[in-house]
Write a structure and sequence with these properties.
The protein has one domain (4-96): EF-hand (Recoverin, domain 1), CATH 1.10.238.10. Helix content is 70%, strand content 0%. The chain contains 6 helices and no strands. The longest helix has 14 residues, at 16-29. The radius of gyration is 13 Å and the shape is globular. It binds calcium ion (2 copies). It comes from Aspergillus avenaceus. Residues 17-52, 63-97 form the EF-hand domain. This is EF-hand domain-containing protein.
């Protein structure tokens, strides 16, 4: 599961609403709930979004499967093939400011 240290770091870098949003998105993406995202899970998020959202909303996202792979590689800073909450948070925070 997500460590307290990771949650702490997120809280310091973002407002509590943003933290909640990121935590929810992280949990939503982390399908097996082991506290790390894999490329398959990020690809799975893409698939689930495309199924959950109205087609028009999804088209507006302009999110392709290649974008997911690209985003995953950028999130996985230490290149171990897993993205923890800290890596995820560091990737997400710039989009909120
Ligand atoms: Ca996982
Ligand atoms: Ca990593």
């Amino acid at each position: 599961m997500v460590s307290d240290k990771a949650k702490q770091e997120l809280r310091e870098k973002s407002t509590s609403d943003q933290t909640d949003f990121m935590m929810d998105l992280f949990k939503y993406t982390d399908k097996d709930q082991n506290g790390y995202l894999t490329l398959d899970e990020v690809r799975g998020l893409h698939k689930r979004l495309s199924e959950d959202l109205e087609k028009d909303d999804f088209d507006q996202l302009e999110l392709t499967e290649e974008d997911c792979e690209d985003a995953f590689r950028r999130m996985d800073r230490n290149g171990d093939g897993k993205v923890g909450l800290i890596e995820f948070g560091r990737f997400m925070v710039p989009y909120f400011v």
